[in-house]
Amino acid sequence: MWMAECQMPLYDNINMKIDQQKITDLNKRVETKHLIQLDFLANQLQNKGIDGQDIIEKLKDFQVAIPSWALGAGGTRFGRFSFGGEPNSLEQKLDDIGILHALTNSAGAVSLHIPWDIPEDYQAIKEKATSHNIIFDAVNSNTFQDQPNAKNSYKFGSLSNINKASRDQAIQHNIDVINIGEKLGSKSLTVWLADGSSFPGQNNFQKTLQNTQDSLKTIYKSLPEDWKLFIEYKPYEPNFYSTVIQDWGTSYMLANECGEKAYTLVDLGHHLPNTNIEQIVATLMLKGKLGGFHFNDSKYGDDDLTVGAIKPYALFLIFNELVYGMTSNPQNPDLAWMIDASHNLKDPLEDLIQSLEAILIAYAQALLVDQKMLREAQEAQDIVACQEILQETYRMDVRSLIRESRIQMNAAIDPIMAYRTLKVRETLVKERGEYSTATGL
């Protein structure tokens, strides 16, 4: 019923923004139910000696970057099913992120992928982002596919390639990406390599690793003083026998070789099945080398599914280590958060809203873990108590805290409901056309 109730225009035509009054009006419809749920949870927390407003303040401050490639349909090796109204320019992508941020207050950053999203007018792009209260997070280089008119190919690798000309081209691309990021106010570069082999004997493992190390150190020298270098890893795909940076240990080693401004970046999908990711997170934070985190979910491999759709408890356990590390490991820098998913079946914006919700739920639950009680149970070697402490917190419904954080920041209590009631996708189709296609994936 509620989907058909709002017939008013979504945007002011000049700034392409959601009318704040419409969000306020929609919140009033569900505010009573929300307050009942919030009061119930607040009483539970008060009995535990927890101030719910402290948690709400942390939720209000938590921002997740949206990658510029995630705002259109994703795809697989077999096909891509487009959505109408996809953003076909960087300006339109920023408008879409602005919609997400207006509805959730959690999407206050964009992570650009180069060369898919090179600004034509840097000042105009910065002004567009500022108008939506969006900052520029890490910039991402692309050496996993050949670009039009490129002199050298990455078919057999980029930073690791036996061909020096291909390595030099990949190094220069990363330096160019840094220069683009500087103009926008970004402070970090993310490097993910598809380099590897699909057949035994194809590469010399030591030589490709040495080439990669030397290439990364050259890129590192071009970093501005206040920048960071994030090094991703992945065990397989697109190569299926070996990947040059195949695990967190290799990434950590390369980061150490580069210097103190280089860090490991963890992507949830970049692990073999059943890998203990929370242990990896804890180890890297202890060593002060966890720089960033890419959120998604998976059942079999790097499925790039909606965050929390498959393994919500695993996400909570990871956040438990993240929260502990953020409190206990001052040697580790503030983390860069980003969603890295591919939306081939769902409306991309609805999928991103669901991911943001899942991230905030896991974060809020982890904030509520009684770390003192958990430490005491660990020291007493009371395994049953340890499990009960974690699972009791995981089973708490913390969504009213998230909704209250949104109310306090003039966002939507129920972003999906607001998105559908305001007919966002229908409006985007009307503005951009049914066959508009996003750049990138």
Comma- or semicolon-separated keywords:
441 residues, alpha/beta, 6-stranded parallel beta sheet, 3-stranded parallel beta sheet, 15 helices, 10% strand, disordered N terminus
Summarize the structure in words.
- This protein has 441 residues and is an alpha/beta fold.
- The protein is 47% helix and 10% strand.
- It is built from 15 helices and 13 strands.
- The strands form 4 sheets. It has a 6-stranded parallel beta sheet. It has a 3-stranded parallel beta sheet with strand order 3-4-5, covered by helices on one side.
- α2 crosses α13 (399-408) and α11 (371-379) runs antiparallel to α12 (383-394).
- 46% of the residues are buried.
Short note summarizing the structure:
47% of the residues lie in helices and 10% in strands. It is an alpha/beta fold.
**Estimated helix fraction:** 40-55%
**Strand order within the widest beta sheet:** 6-7-9-11-12-13
Which spans of ≥5 residues are poorly predicted at pLDDT below 50? 1-9
Shape: globular
H/E order of the elements? Answer: EEHHEHEHEEHEEHEEHEHEHEHHHHHH
Q: Tell me the fraction of residues in β-strands, as a range.
A: 5-15%
Distance between the termini: 35 Å
Question: What is the radius of gyration computed over CA atoms, rounded to a whole number of angstroms?
Answer: 22 Å
Q: How is this fold's topology laid out?
A:
Elements (H helix, E strand, L loop, with lengths): L10 E2 L4 E2 L1 H28 L4 H10 L3 E3 L22 H15 L4 E3 L10 H10 L3 E2 L2 E2 L23 H21 L3 E4 L4 E2 L7 H17 L6 E5 L9 E2 L4 H11 L3 E6 L9 H10 L3 E6 L16 H17 L7 E4 L8 H20 L3 H9 L3 H12 L4 H10 L6 H7 L2 H9 L9
